[in-house]
Amino acid sequence: MRIVKELGLLGPRDRLTADVAKALFQRFEEPLSDGDISIIARLTHLDDEALRVMAPKVTFLGQAQDFWLSTVYGPADDARKDAFLRELSLSAPPPNDPWLINGDFNLIYESRDNSNINLNRRTALFRFENFWPSFPCFHATVERAWKRTERSSCPFQRLATKMARTARELKKWSKSFFSQARLHFHVAAEIVLRLDVAQERRRLSDAEQALRKLLKLRLLGLAALERARRRQASRLIWLRLGDAGTKFFHAKATSRKRKNFIQCLRVGGDLLTVHEHKEEAIHNHFKLSMGSRIERSLQVDWSIFNLPSVQNRGLDNPFSQEEVWEAIKASPAEKAPGPDGFSGTFYRACWHIIKEDIMATFTSFDNLSRGDFAKLNTTLIILLPKKDGASTIQDYRPISLIHSVAKLISKVLSRRLSVVISTIISPAQSAFLRSKSTQDSFLYVQNIVRSLHRKKQPALLLKIDIAKAFDSVSWEYLLEVMQQLRFPARWRDWVSMLLCTASSAVLLNGATGCYFTHQRGLRQGDSLSPLLFIIAIDTLHRLLQKATELQAIAPLPGRGIPLRVSLYADDAVIFANPAAEEITALMAILHDFGRASGLLINPSKSTAAPIRCDGVDLHHILTAFGGKVVAFPLTYLGLPITLSRLKLVHIQFILDRIRARLAGWKGKLLNIAGRRVLVRNVLSALPTFALSVLRAPRNFFEEIDRARRRFLWAQEDGELGGGKSKVNWPTVCSPLENGGLGILDLNRFSRALRLRWLWLQWTSNDRPWQGRNLPCDEVDRELFTASTTVTLGNGATASFWHCSWTGSGSLKTLFPSLFKHSRRKQRSVRDALRNNTWVADLAHGSNSHLWEDAIRLHRWLQDRDLQPQAESADTITWNLEASQTYSARSAYNAQFQGRLTSDFNKLIWRTWAPPRLKIFGWLVLRNRLWCNDRLQRRGWPNGYFCQLCLRNLETSVHLFWECPMMLQIWTYAASRAGCASLSPSLWATKAGSAEKITAMIGAAQPLQRKATKTMIILMLWEIWKHRNDCTFTGKQAHIHDVQCAITRTVELWRQAGAFFLEHPFWDPP
């Protein structure tokens, strides 16, 4: 090949390039097989003698020097790479001739040769796709692989083999079923596009219409498939598939991978960038912390404690199939899988196939037959950055992705333990207990700090950091604690078997490292680990309590401080007196506890906050502490502890977190339904933890609402004004029953959450904060009183003035003047009625009306004979729930009582329409679409006339109900069988959209009303789409186009699940 004008490469199955090649080169032949690369050129002269098998000799026009050209496509199989390189070396030209080699070698020389963060160094791990069970042949594939004969007699080995075999078969099935999905999607889209273009010029034939209909359905299915795959990769389990497009899920998954990718690590003074070096450093780190055993240098003298005994409510009972199935249903279905690749969805979908082998494994585990259980107890450790710019291993949080079988066993055990663990855990601990919450610890610490500050009593708050808490728990210590707490021996053996057979490997940037066997610690990500950890650390409270009793450390100043330590898992707060001797003794106790349990404190991360310590030499006092001295406010459990009233600056971090979640690209890639879900489920949930225990200032709610409103209506930062929000925010934040979108009103919701403390004050006497201030204002208490009824017992708990113990409301409401003049407004009923003490509490004066009211109240009480009963306690019931128990939902909805209810809920929300079309219907009913009349009122550009009839001003009522063209659509729809209720004659005299839709639904048969409502929304949507096409693209209005669109959409909705949706339209001619 002497002279070449054009030179190119053609890859395998590159159809677009092939078509171009056919057009340019008449002799181009097809087809190409996998792995082929062809050289295509336009020749002016061919020298046959210069053409060799692999390396033609090339001379470019106008250049004298020629060279040899070899185009290669290396094998992907590692076993064939050596032979490929030998063959390439044999085809080398003479030594002095230039040689150009191009193509794909399928080889990696160094990691920096490829900057792709998804560089695949090993065979990709199997990952079960949660959408697989909905496709044909899935269950048959699983059953065929699972039921194959397995000779092993060990249940563990048999199950491991079956799971591995099923994973291989599912990979093959997935590859054959889904590998060409993207190619098919683009081919189908191209054909549909060409048919649409042709339809603009001529009428399609029957065969072409049938093909287009078939491909359109195929496109929707393929798009849904790709969207489901991207959703699982994005880990956005709160967002439904229909609420966001594939681009959003893809962008989220890409962002998550980019954030979690570890580019480099700083170990000591070295910066590691090579993958192998990073992998080795991380492996050594975790092997040292979890894979090495440290001998205990101290033992705990358990005889000094009066330890409780665990109530053995079936802790060591044999496992039943019902119990395992309940654990499967209670487990998250879409969480990231472990080394085996199977998620909870697999167990739910294939339980009828796999349950026998699963139960055989549980039986073998019950019998403590270790066998090959280690194969089912493996873990992948992934590292998630704790902060931006993470550079060291300590800047990452290790999360264990546990083998699904070991995770299921742990789930069953944790469900058993969670029922009885509250009986053996001290009040100082509030983590992972059903009867307690995180806010209990925070509220207790906040009250103690403010009480000491208010009383001007010097004290120290020590915030203790435990180094590698979960990773460093001594197994011997843990089993010893459980033995002292009278756990059954079989239970302890089960826990021991789970711990000592565990092994882990680090999953770094998609590559699995070497496994190491655990010698200590608890895996983060195991449902049993948190419960075992709080059992282990609870001894610290008992040690401090005993030290106070033995006067090794002095009691705290003042009265009413029952606990000097507050624990939430590994977050510990200890109150101490500002004395050097006490700090030294306290640190000795902590140090000895760490030597006995493995839970050593980290002084460099521990802090001390002084309370009223003016004039105290803190430097001398805290010499033994070793931590930093900080001032209030300080953060505990993610919330600010302040000495005075909460300010916006103290919770600014919550606003920053919300704004960070509202990245601009999210609003652009989500439709209105997706944005509503994000606002409801994510943005409204972020501040919930804080709002339940803090009384936030009003401007805090205003800032959050501004961010939520902007995101919901897809507004940029500079577009907040000018009336561009389609509906005012108070209406949007109303419940669906009141005509809103159901987005939480955070101010009202925070009030509903705070009522929980008033309820617990009555129903839970073991809370450490009992008898102290609650984060509730007067409005909260009035709402609580109106929502509850107190049944009088001994009268010791019920408030004389505040509680509804009379059956007619609170006395505070019935006799406001008496309440105003009472000097003891917090008296209980028992104390107030004893010798009519409530009368003596009234302020003296000559107000005759006051004493008239007092006499009236006295007679009123005598007439009802309301006297305390000494043998029973006061009880309270919640009036807003059938269960008579407090719920935040009912407390929230109660604040909307008295508002007008709306028919929007039954008109649009209870239909088969997709969520975004339901919101469109909501805007139609509220007359909040941007029709020309509303644009004109705001002085914005508009076309004035209706774009369909070009006769009248375009309003929402005219466009959908009065336009002559649209009336024909409704008339045609009504003429079809089953759709007579859509006739304009039924609703022409009605005033607004809601009245017209109500008339149509009322005229339909009861069994057809849901279909009728769905059909109405569909028609409104297609009319609006056609209007937009005419307005923004200049398309001519045509009834035929609307009919075609409605017909196609009806058919698609029916296939998507709206099975009873009537088809009122004929196939358009």
UniProtKB/TrEMBL annotation:
Residues 365-641 form the Reverse transcriptase domain. It comes from the Eukaryota. CDD domains: RT_nLTR_like. PANTHER family: OS01G0158850 PROTEIN, REVERSE TRANSCRIPTASE ZINC-BINDING DOMAIN-CONTAINING PROTEIN-RELATED-RELATED. This is Reverse transcriptase domain-containing protein. It comes from Hordeum vulgare subsp. vulgare.
